[in-house]
Amino acid sequence: MYTSPTSRAIIIIGRNQTNFTHELDNLHSLNPNGTYTFLETDISLIRTIDHLTPTILTHLNGTQIDLLTISQGYISSSGREPNPEEGPGIPRSSLHNYGRIPPGSEPPALHDLTRTGSLVSSPADKKGTIIEDDLDLERYYSIPASMAQFASMTTLSFDYLAREYPRKSFLHVFPGLTGTGLLGRSATGVLGLVMRWVVEPVLGGFCCYA
Question: Is the model's pTM score more than 0.70?
Fold first, then answer.
């Protein structure tokens, strides 16, 4: 997609534009005719996602999206602890589902402007049985249960969107491990140190980095 001689307009959304500078340079090198816009914001917050949609629509300026990729997520090693930046009663784990398939009227606006479809990067191969009487895992939370529950819920959400938008394609895939430092930030204390200095370096040999 990036090496095509035709002009491409790509919008990248992430926390830190400085850390992404090298990748932006690579994109310009691969396709000098492309336009690459980095929107610096924390998409690990649901309230940020709600405010981000109008910004994306402004940058699109009426044009359509060829491919929409959504990959934000969060791993919690300490259960359904609330996120103080979101507000009381909103656990960090809610980002897994509602951050990718948010409720309300704004996400359909993005889907309406998507010409081809959406691609979600998440542990799609970790789908499992949904605990119907504990959808938010208030009683049965664990990391494996969280991965299975929200991966399955994302697939079901995509099934619904595919029926609502029959001319578009929705892919729920697992492209592989990505080294983002997420594991080290997901825990505190001794466990956080182990994640940061032992687990992440070991997994680093099998990851691509973002």
Answer: yes
Q: Where are the domains of the chain?
A: 41-175, 180-210
Contact criterion met (CB below 8 Å) for 155 and 130: no
Is the Cα dihedral 170, 176, 182, 187 positive or negative?
Answer: positive
Amino acid, single-letter form, for residue 71 = S
Cα(196)–Cα(180) distance, integer angstroms: 11
How many other C-beta atoms lie within 10 A of the C-beta of residue 67? 14
As its CATH architecture, domain 41-175 has 3-Layer(aba) Sandwich (3.40)
Give CA separation, 137 vs 76, 81, 94, 97, 102, in Å. 12, 12, 10, 12, 18
Model confidence over 58-95: pLDDT tens digits? 888 888 888 888 777 666 666 666 666 666 656 666 66
Give residue 2's pLDDT: 43
